[in-house]
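The instructor's notes for this session suggest beginning with a concrete chain rather than abstract definitions. Hand out the sequence below and ask the class to guess, before any prediction is shown, which regions might be ordered.
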Amino acid sequence: MRVDVLLPTYGSPALVREAVLSALAQDHADLRLVLVDDADPDPTTRDWAATLADDRVEVVRNTQNLGVNGNFRRCLELAEAPYLVVMGQDDVMLPGHLSGLVRLLEAHPEAVVAQPGVRAIDAEGRSVRPLADRVKARLGPRHVSLLAGEALAAGLLRGNWTYFPALGWRTEAVRRIGFRPGLEVVLDLALLLDVAREGGGLAFDPAVTFAYRRHAASVSSDAALDGRRFVEERAFFAAEAVAFRTQGWGHAARAARVHLTSRLHAASLLPRAARAGDWTTARTLARHTLA
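After discussion, reveal the predicted structure:
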């Protein structure tokens, strides 16, 4: 079964090269790799991709910078294969990643999305296990599982234990549901919750086939350090609590209202903001913590 790997790119050409080569080295050879260049003024990645001479590789350049949300939606527009992955430009596919996703989706016809086991790496590619990943490991399933409906939604709202760049999707379903406009940090969680609302399932296999890079130079890290992340999350969880209560999913509504792991994340950053004397960010973090 063919898989489209959509790779949004902007900057970091060395990391993009590592991501691309890890995808092309997969044992699941029936793939199409599309680099979706978000109007990057640096031609380094585009020029390098042209030297690959691999007919599985395409480069699409946006005429203007669309940002995270816009470029992710552009990726869905470009998908053609039955299955797709929207990979992070600084992440690495380990051997057997794509074939494992295909097996999971074929074994579970009711699943819209598949999540493999993931290990975290730092900027230099060394395995790390920071607090965020230890928490994800505790919140997620331990064994091969299929989760759906309110159980899936409530679990993700307690703490999003998935890794979006590692997910495999059924193209038809994810394109129909789509990313919600306006979200930059929680757009992946919103998409998963919308899948759950429709009764779609998530298939999980703990076998580790993906390396997720943890470093400070990311949209979510920048947004967390200046408080923007939690402004978006606060509004998002409040709206989800109302929506799930209206739907009659009480457990999911409560998990959204409490959003405990999000509040603990904000609390963990408060000392750093205070030490830096950034009281505007500190107030944002405190408000979210005590919400």
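Then share the key points. The CA atoms of residues 126 and 165 lie 18 Å apart. The chain has a mean pLDDT of 94.
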